[in-house]
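Let's practice the habit of predicting before peeking. Look at the sequence and jot down your guess about where helices and strands might fall. Then scroll down.
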Amino acid sequence: MVFSPNVDPKLFDPNRHDSTFSGYADDLVCLLDQLHVNLTIYLGHSMAAMVGCMAAINRPQLFPHLILLSGSPRYNNDEGYQGGFERSQIDAIYRNIDENFLGWPGEDETRDALDVATTVFSSDLRTRLPQVLVPCTIIQSREDNVVPESEACYMKSKIGGDAEVMILDPHGHFPHLTAYHLLFKVLKVALHLKE
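Done guessing? Here is the structure:
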């Protein structure tokens, strides 16, 4: 997948990897096909949660279950919709990346980071959720600074297949890093695994 540590960043194409996430979903399905994976429980975090949804719309037989961790179909607030960010906050993020992005060696990488941020923050996949027909477990942190807790209930109400919501007590957008032991417990319940 583009932007994974062992993938050449030159594979990123802003025209293909756009705010529909279809390019990312195609990459995911292609990777699974190359690995001869015929059935998988997919866990995606944040943007990758929605990539999994788009892939499952196209190839539902490949995904018997999606686990959507801190995902959102739209990060930008809209009338009657709480996505998490006002337009001014998103513009500030873009400026911050453009002016202060540390850790990237050159101008091309900063442009790519801006392209990905633009892709994420301009995405609006709310109308695609009813097309997700595979069972989903939506896991959301109670105090996520990126995705409001209400997003989990919104997604559950819009997903076309069966969906359940599980709320984690830890704060933050990265429970798989900050509270992995609690996440593992929730995953065991979601996947019906015994202790």
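How did you do? Residues 17-74+123-190 form a domain with the Rossmann fold fold (CATH 3.40.50.1820).
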